[in-house]
C-alpha cells in the first residue's frame, strides 16, 4: 500500500504546529488522551476557535457538558464562543446520553449519532470536528461488543467525511485510553499529562503516534493561560541558532564603549545582574528605549512594577518610554509572578512573542523564575524560553536580582551570551555603584570595574580610576 | 404495576426512530407492533420517524442509537434502544413490567 503523504491541518495553537511539523493530519482523526484536568477539552476547544479564525468552521460535540458550560469554559480563557456560534463558524451540539432513561432491548447501531453529526457538519460546512468525550457511551450503553464495532464505524465515517477531527479520551493507569480507543485511530495519538512537582503544576504533551510525518517524540511542556495554550518547543541540542553579525546598542553609550563591538549581537541573550538599588531596571529601560528609537518593537515584561510606574520612574532619569508605548512599538506587560502563576507567566511571554513579534525583549527581573525553587523542571522551562527567543533572533535582556552577599545563580549561565554585573559598594564617600562586564561572547570587552551614576540623563559610567579615589 | 394498570394510563403514543428502512428497523417495528397488540390493544399509536428524512430530530430528541423507541405518552418520557427483540426488556423499559 503506498504510504501517501499526509497533509497537515495547521491548528493555529501556539507551538503545536511546530512540534507536529505542520499541524494535525488533515482529514483524519486525532486521539487526544489524558487524565482529568489535563487540558484536553481546552486544547480541543482552541483547535475549533483557531479554525473558525482561519475560515474553517468547527463542530463541537460535548457528551458531558452543555453548550452553556462549553462557552463558560471558553470564556475563562478569553474566547467568545457565542460570537463564533452567532456568525456560523462554530456549532456546539451537546449529545446527552442518560443511562437511567435508556433500556437496551437488542442490537443497535450508532446511526442516530452519525445522522446527527452529518446534519451538523453540513449545516455550517464544518471542516473541524471535536468529540469530547466519546467514551461516555461506554457507561451509557451496555453491549460493549456492539459499541466497539459501531465506534470503529464512526471513526471510518469521520475519515470518509474528510473532516479533521479530535476525539478526546480518558487516560487510564495502564493503557493510553481507558477503553482502548487508540485501536481505532491510526494517524495521530497525543497524550496530555498534568503533574504537580514542588507545588507547581507542570503540563506535558507527548505525541505517541503520528503516521507519515516527522514529529517530536519527547515530552513537551505546555501551558494554559488566558488566550490559549502554548506548546513550548524543545531546545535544539545542536545549538543551530541563526547567528547575526549585527550589533544592537545597549542603549548606554558608555557601556557600548566597554564592549568590543559597541553593543551586543542581535539575537543574543544578555543578563544584567545586581543587588537591590543598582539600577537594573534603568539599564533595561535604556536598552528598550534605544530599540524603539531605531523603530524596533520591544516587549517589556515587568514583574515588579506596573506600566505607568515604570514610565514615570524612567522619565525621572531622562528615559522616554511614554512615546514608544503610545506609538505601539513598546508593549509593557506587567505581571507579578506568584508561585502558582508561573505557568501563566511563561505562557504569557511565549504568547506575546508570537503575537507582538518583538525585536527585543526585556524581562525585568527574571530572578523570579528561578528563585521559585529547586525544581529542575522550572529551570529547564526557562532555558527553553530563552532558547525560543534565540531561535527567533530576538535580542533578550534579562535583569536578575542578586540578594546581598549571595552567590549569583549560574543555572542559566550557559545560555547567557553577555553578562553585566552591577554592585553597590561602600566607599569613603558613602555608597557607590560599580559595574563589570563578566562576559561577552564573540567579542573582546573591558575588564575594568567601573563606577557609574544614575543621573537626570540616565546612566553615566565614569573612568575606572575614579572608583579608587 | 400490572399491564392493565399501565394501560389504564393511556392513550399511549410511541415513536420509533429509524435511519432508513433496514432489516433491523423492520424487525423493530414488527416486534413493537406485536408487543403493543398484546399489551396495549386499542390504546396506542405508533409513529415512525426516519432520521434520514428528518435529521434535525436526532439533535432535538437526543437520539444516538438506532433503533430508539420513545414513549412520549403517558409521561414520563422513556427511551429504549435496540431492535426490541428482548420482549421482557421492552416491557420493563415501557414500565409495563416492574424493574428488578
Description:
The complex is a heterodimer of chains A (469) and B (100). With 469 residues, chain A is an alpha/beta fold. Chain A has 14 helices and 23 strands. The longest helix of chain A is centred in the first third of the chain and has 18 residues. The radius of gyration of chain A is 27 Å and the shape is elongated. The model of chain A has no long low-confidence stretch (mean pLDDT 85). Chain B is of the alpha+beta class and 100 residues long. Chain B has a 4-stranded mixed beta sheet with strand order 2-1-3-4, covered by helices on one side. At the A-B interface, strand 6 and helix 5 of A face helix 3, strand 4 and helix 4 of B. Strand 6 of chain A pairs parallel with strand 4 of chain B, so a sheet runs across the interface.
Summarize the structure.
The complex is a heterodimer of chains A (469) and B (100). Chain A has 469 residues and is of the alpha/beta class.
Give the overall average pLDDT of chain A.
85
User: Between the first and last Cα atoms of chain B, what is the distance in angstroms?
Assistant: 12 Å
Give the ordered list of helices and strands of chain B: HEHEHEEH
The radius of gyration over CA of chain A amounts to: 27 Å
Low-confidence stretches of chain A: none
Amino acid at each position: 500500500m503506498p504510504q501517501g503523504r499526509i497533509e497537515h491541518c495547521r491548528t493555529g495553537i501556539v507551538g503545536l504546529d511546530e512540534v507536529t511539523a505542520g499541524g494535525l493530519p488533515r482529514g483524519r482523526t486525532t486521539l487526544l488522551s489524558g487524565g482529568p484536568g489535563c487540558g484536553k477539552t481546552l486544547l480541543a476547544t482552541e483547535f475549533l476557535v483557531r479554525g473558525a479564525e482561519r475560515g474553517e468552521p468547527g463542530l463541537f460535540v460535548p457528551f458531558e457538558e452543555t453548550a452553556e458550560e462549553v462557552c463558560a469554559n471558553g470564556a475563562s480563557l478569553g474566547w467568545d464562543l457565542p460570537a463564533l456560534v452567532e456568525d456560523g463558524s462554530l456549532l456546539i451540539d451537546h449529545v446527552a446520553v442518560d443511562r437511567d432513561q435508556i433500556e437496551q432491548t437488542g442490537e443497535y447501531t450508532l446511526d442516530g449519532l452519525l445522522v446527527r453529526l452529518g446534519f451538523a457538519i453540513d449545516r455550517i460546512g464544518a471542516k473541524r470536528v471535536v468529540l469530547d468525550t466519546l467514551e461516555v457511551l461506554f457507561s451509557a450503553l451496555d453491549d460493549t461488543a456492539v459499541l466497539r464495532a459501531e465506534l470503529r464505524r464512526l471513526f471510518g465515517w469521520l475519515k470518509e467525511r474528510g473532516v479533521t477531527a479530535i476525539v478526546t479520551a480518558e487516560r487510564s493507569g495502564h493503557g493510553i485510553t481507558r477503553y482502548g480507543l487508540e485501536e481505532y485511530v491510526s494517524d495521530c495519538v497525543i497524550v496530555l499529562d498534568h503533574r504537580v512537582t514542588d507545588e507547581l503544576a507542570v503540563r506535558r504533551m507527548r505525541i505517541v503516534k503520528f503516521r507519515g510525518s516527522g514529529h517530536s517524540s519527547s515530552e513537551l511542556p505546555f501551558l494554559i493561560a488566558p488566550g490559549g495554550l502554548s506548546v513550548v518547543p524543545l531546545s535544539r541540542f545542536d545549538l543551530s541558532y541563526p547567528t547575526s553579525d549585527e550589533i544592537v546598542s545597549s542603549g548606554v553609550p558608555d557601556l557600548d564603549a566597554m564592549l568590543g563591538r559597541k553593543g551586543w549581537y542581535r539575537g543574543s541573550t544578555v543578563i544584567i545582574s545586581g543587588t537591590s538599588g543598582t539600577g537594573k531596571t534603568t539599564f533595561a529601560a535604556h536598552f528598550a528605549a534605544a530599540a524603539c528609537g531605531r523603530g524596533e518593537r520591544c516587549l517589556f515584561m515587568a514583574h515588579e512594577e506596573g506600566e505607568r510606574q515604570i514610565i514615570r520612574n524612567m522619565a525621572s532619569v531622562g528615559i522616554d518610554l511614554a512615546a514608544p508605548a503610545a506609538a505601539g512599538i513598546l508593549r509593557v506587560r506587567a505581571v507579578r509572578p506568584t508561585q502558582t502563576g508561573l505557568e501563566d507567566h511563561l505562557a504569557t511571554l511565549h504568547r506575546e512573542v508570537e503575537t507582538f513579534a518583538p525585536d527585543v525583549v526585556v524581562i525585568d527581573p527574571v530572578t523570579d523564575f528561578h528563585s521559585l525553587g529547586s525544581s529542575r523542571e522550572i529551570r529547564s522551562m526557562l532555558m527553553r524560553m530563552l532558547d525560543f527567543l534565540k531561535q527567533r533572533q530576538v535580542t533578550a535582556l534579562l535583569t536578575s536580582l542578586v540578594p546581598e552577599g549571595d552567590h549569583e545563580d549560574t543555572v542559566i549561565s550557559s545560555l547567557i551570551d553577555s553578562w553585566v554585573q552591577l554592585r553597590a559598594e561602600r566607599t569613603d564617600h558613602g555608597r557607590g555603584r560599580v559595574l563589570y562586564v563578566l562576559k561577552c561572547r564573540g567579542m573582546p570587552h573591558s575588564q575594568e570595574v567601573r563606577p557609574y551614576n544614575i543621573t537626570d540623563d540616565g546612566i553615566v559610567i565614569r573612568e575606572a580610576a575614579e572608583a579608587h579615589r | 404495576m400490572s399491564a392493565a394498570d399501565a394501560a389504564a394510563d393511556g392513550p399511549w403514543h410511541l415513536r420509533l426512530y429509524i435511519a432508513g428502512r433496514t432489516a433491523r428497523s423492520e424487525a423493530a417495528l414488527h416486534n413493537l407492533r406485536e408487543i403493543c397488540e398484546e399489551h396495549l390493544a386499542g390504546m396506542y399509536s405508533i409513529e415512525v420517524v426516519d432520521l434520514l428524512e428528518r435529521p434535525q430530530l436526532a439533535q432535538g430528541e437526543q437520539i444516538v442509537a438506532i433503533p430508539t423507541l420513545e414513549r412520549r405518552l403517558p409521561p414520563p418520557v422513556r427511551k429504549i434502544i435496540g431492535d426490541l427483540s428482548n420482549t421482557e426488556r421492552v416491557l420493563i423499559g415501557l414500565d409495563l413490567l416492574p424493574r428488578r
